[in-house]
Amino acid sequence: PIASCFFPSNLTGQWINTANVNARVLINATHIHEIAKVNNRGWLRETYYVCQQTSRSQYLVKAVTKGECFSYYICFDFKDRHHNILRYRKSKSFMSNLYKLFPNRDPFYEVCSWTSFGNDANWKYQAFVLDPPAPIECPFTGMWTFKQVGQPNSLIQTRIRGGITPRPRDHGWYITCDPQYVVSQWTICGDQTKSMFA
């Protein structure tokens, strides 16, 4: 498909899709190119999202997956970029052939309708993380301590890639879920405001 609109220049770059950590996302002025590992065998699924129409923060794209016969309309709703994070919602997919059969139907109106994003009371946003992340100035300096208080079952669990840490990791420098390790301390010193030591 031919692009007929543009993404903002601050969306361009290489990203990691947190909804699928095996996926790499490349965004340029008119296309989003997602390359994802499908399974352990290393098969790749390549999907191109081509910008078709835009209004405010919503972008109607035509999605074409390499090796598939059909294209789909999908709507991306992007939040403003925050340093290394780009939050977005993605609508359900609609077969693009449907709109050729019924030319009076407006794909932007239907695909980017709020009902196309699911009917959760609180919309959930996925995130792209810049790859590699760029360091930014920390808004504070000094030594800080974070301690959780409350019922043991309501404390935030530390996470590692692949999910919540299943058990303490040798009580070394690894993050653990052991109740005695619910205190974190980090330090930002002097002119090292782009580095944080935990």
From TrEMBL:
GO terms classed as biological process: wound healing
Superkingdom of the source species: Eukaryota
Domain DUF7043: 3-123
The protein, known as: DUF7043 domain-containing protein
Organism of derivation: Rotaria socialis
Lineage of the species this protein comes from: Eukaryota, Metazoa, Spiralia, Gnathifera, Rotifera
